[in-house]
């Protein structure tokens, strides 16, 4: 099927408006209608949707201009790429030491998303891809990041999780009670690392530690994960200090001074 057939026209029109606004300071509905050759009603519906979602702003004279949201999204991706480039050699070293899968992830609202990983060479392994997403509250990577968010942001995020009914029980070990999740996060902050004892995927365990930038803000987390048959409590205890040290070395490369 050709791209012209599969394209979603409303999305194409939204992108066209964003591209048009990117070339000017601001434009009104009538100006956009003339420029694009569309009816005013169509322009108004699309731009209202873009405004509601924060991609455009209405000026005092009822014209529209781009907001900073696109800049923020692009800047976020640049930051993620920078972290990935900085972290990758350290991930390779960690994978060589542990012989298990090593992951780098960032927080995206209520999920963590893998932005880099070194897969274990063991026959029994996870087999997940970069770009895979997991709930933040029940994975080692997510807990490592959530634990170091500033209090206001963390409280708002947890409240939103609860409001939307997103504390789901994936395994018998998944912690879904908010007070207990807060206890987990307090323990992570005290220890400097987090664990995943089959909280999300049955038979998968892991240990993770946070990565900070130059301003001391948590930006990512790294983890070592593998089958529970290999990731015993003794093995995880052995991996914990090396995971913390690796995360700290990456943080230092990002300008973190402790």
Automatic annotation (TrEMBL):
Top-level lineage group: Bacteria
Biological processes, Gene Ontology terms: negative regulation of DNA-templated transcription
Residue ranges constituting the IclR-ED domain according to the UniProt record: 69-256
Keywords: DNA-binding, Transcription, Transcription regulation
Pfam families: HTH_IclR (PF09339), IclR_C (PF01614)
Record-level Gene Ontology MF annotations: DNA binding; DNA-binding transcription factor activity
Domain HTH iclR-type, chain residue ranges per copy: 8-68
Acetylation in keyword set: no
InterPro entries assigned: GAF-like_dom_sf (IPR029016), HTH_MetabolicPath_Reg (IPR050707), Tscrpt_reg_IclR_C (IPR014757), Tscrpt_reg_IclR_N (IPR005471), WH-like_DNA-bd_sf (IPR036388), WH_DNA-bd_sf (IPR036390)
Physiological role: May be an activator protein for the gylABX operon.
Listed name of the protein: Glycerol operon regulatory protein
Species per Swiss-Prot/TrEMBL record: Sporomusa termitida
